[in-house]
Design goal:
single chain; Rossmann fold; six-stranded parallel beta sheet; 14 helices; about 35% helix
């Protein structure tokens, strides 16, 4: 690798992955591997504010640059200001791990001698080194696609990553752990309670399992003695979460107060919560990947996406159950138009299937 800095200066590497939560988490094996290969490097990560808690406590990073998810003129002005700042940093290597127009522009703006990105039509000129982006839906995990970019930077990345050696990483901060303890006190959750975390929301209709189905699962799981179900999601999901909690308490199967609405937990506290939980239940989403960064057993519900590409990336010995539909001609899809019109990939899945998978994992603990 040719460098513009002096031989005695540390290598300066910028990783660019503005969003989203799960996608940012899937880059953390590369962060650790980069630090392993370049122990003295200045390793900087550029991310948008919403996903910043995923990487800001990462011990392998020298710095995290946080930007906002802007639109229109405000985005243009921020990106121009940021481009000037990045150029002044004189990075030796910049890796665009996203492939979008904004990340491509910011990678180009660094002026780094080595600029790595996906060979995307209309943007490939922004990079000095390009990586072919798979066309279609190959049965290959997204972590490998991230790793392909690192392999261009250094030949030592030729060996593929493994979930055991190259785990997802999101450290728990003491402040987040303390915040979870305070929340438990407010909810009346004790150390003797088994906590099940259920992420029951999705911004994308294609990944939205019916509320009634989540309510039935919460009701069944909360029926066990000393078990509490926390239904988590964003502040925008509060109404959905409330309806699920009401559905869970629709009869006496779930004792009153054993299923709680828990919207709006910050990401760092959600990660700390996973270490306290006995089970996570949810769809292909950012919280599922946060769960994968812990050792909590996971029941992952898949609809339009494939586990081969997006399954929790974690060591094989950690408990995991995947609930998905059988073969469908329309699956996977681009999640823009449901060809059959009935979202059958998710809605064909029953609460009984998810409860059975959950109970099987709980019984092995």
């Amino acid at each position: 690798m040719r460098r513009r800095s002096t031989p005695d200066a540390p290598l300066k590497i910028l990783l660019v992955r503005p969003r989203l939560i799960g996608d940012v988490l899937l880059t953390t094996p590369v962060i650790r591997a980069m630090r392993r290969r370049y122990p003295d490097a200045e390793l900087v990560y550029l991310v948008e504010a919403h996903a910043a808690p995923v990487v800001s406590p990462n011990p392998h990073l020298s710095e995290t640059i946080v930007i906002r998810h802007r639109h229109g003129v405000r985005r243009l002005l921020e990106d121009l200001r940021l481009a000037i700042q990045l150029r002044a940093r004189r990075f030796d290597v910049a890796v665009d791990m996203h492939g979008g127009s904004r990340s491509g522009w910011l990678t180009f703006a660094t002026g780094a001698r080595m600029r790595v990105g996906y060979d995307v039509s209309g943007r490939s000129w922004m990079y000095t080194h390009r990586v072919a982006r798979p066309v279609g839906y190959l049965p290959r995990h997204s972590v490998f696609s991230m790793w392909d970019l690192a392999a261009v930077v250094d030949a030592s990345f030729a060996d593929p990553p493994t979930p055991a050696r190259d785990r997802l990483e999101m450290p728990v901060t003491p402040a987040a752990a303390a915040a979870v303890s305070r929340r438990f006190e407010q909810l009346g959750v004790t150390a003797a309670d088994e906590v099940v975390v259920m992420h029951a929301a999705a911004g994308n209709e294609f990944r939205r399992w019916p509320e009634a189905a989540f309510g039935a699962v919460a009701r069944a799981l909360a029926a066990a003695h000393r078990r509490v179900v926390l239904v988590v999601g964003s502040h925008q999901d509060a109404a959905t979460i409330d309806r699920i909690v009401k559905a869970a308490h629709a009869d006496d199967a779930a004792p009153s107060g054993r299923v709680h609405a828990a919207p709006g937990w910050p990401l760092d506290e959600l990660r700390a919560l996973m270490d306290r939980a006995v089970l996570f239940v949810g769809g292909d989403s950012g919280p599922m990947h946060i769960a994968a960064a812990s050792d909590v057993p996971i029941v992952a519900i898949f609809g339009p996406t494939l586990p081969a590409h997006w399954a929790p990336w974690r060591p094989a010995e950690l408990p995991l159950a995947i609930v998905e539909p059988g073969p469908l001609d329309c699956r996977p899809c681009d999640q823009r138009v449901c060809a059959p019109g009935d979202f059958r990939c998710l809605r064909s899945l029953t609460p009984d299937q998810v409860v059975a998978a959950a109970n099987q994992l709980l019984e092995t603990q």
